[in-house]
Amino acid sequence: MQMTFRWYGEGNDSVSLADIKQIPGVTGIVWALHHKQAGEIWTVDEIMHEKKIIEDAGFNIDVVESVNVHDDIKIGLPTRDQYIENYKITLRNLAQCGVKVVTYNFMPVFDWTRTDLFHPLPDGSTALYYEKSVIREDAKEMADYILKGCKGYTMPGWEPERMAQLDELFEKYKPVTKEKLWENLKYFLEAIMPTCEETGIKMAIHQDDPPWDIFGLPRLLVNKEAIGKFLKMVDHPNNCLCLCSGSLGANEKNDIADIIRSYCDRIAFAHVRNVKHYENGDFSEVSHRDCDGDVGILEIMKAYHDCGFDGYMRPDHGRHIWNEKCRPGYGLYDRALGIMYLWGVWDMLEKLEGAH
Length: 356
Ligand code: CS2
Ligand code: MN
Description:
This protein is an alpha/beta fold. The protein has 13 helices and twelve strands. The model has no long low-confidence stretch (mean pLDDT about 95).
């Protein structure tokens, strides 16, 4: 297992690479060109610039999160072919600079959704929170609601520029049924797989968060069955998963350890996060400690270890602790604590059971 840490780039993150260097055992930075819009080509010069910064700090750039997929590809518009060509060029450029895994998601319009980015927990920390009764079917109303409580921060995909085009986007998604969205995902993957094979890049899809339909938009990667369907649909070793225990874990019916054991050979990247469920359907992000939440962190780590997982791992989101001012879910302190917990469990498994 190779431990990594997500970093948003110089001037764009409250955490420094020097800080990350002091967390034991982190070898790679999970990075992206965050100023790029979906559909734009990432040039070799731009990638090399970022590579130098990260490598000079003593980390590898093996994993990118994310090269976002343009909505026209998800909707299946005729313009998708041009965007797919651009995506292939980006993949080639990334491979040329040494990148091995590219993370993406196939959620229509939005990335992850929460109702509160700074929800107080009983211990005085705050965390990302989903309150079922607050969710509005109307995405615009929801966006206003979220922006009020967000201290100037927003969720990815919910930026004011995008909100301005929301009606138009929703109109375009109208004919996109769940079935159509599956077809469009297949079309995209079949088009890029030859490039992945040629360059060695593994495409790692992130599951939908939360893992159910939202705002009347269909969502695909929500449970074991859907993941199985996805892997079979394009049965290629470069068509892989970024398995996120936090996203899948929002649905208590998902048995994450079982999903890991079933599809381990196709997991290129592991996001490990804990979630606590409440009876009324709300859920909260919590610390990585097994007993603080419900996803079964110990079982998850045991499953990865039993499978001989040698891919990349990172703590997913963290709480906000010790008054840290940071991007929601992406502070230094709680993610560093998370890493130490994951290492503690992993090192003990290696000691008791040997390295697989
Ligand atoms: C998620 C996503 O893992 C995460 O932090 O909250 O933002 C994830 O990065 C994307 O969905 C992957 O494309
Ligand atoms: Mn994740």
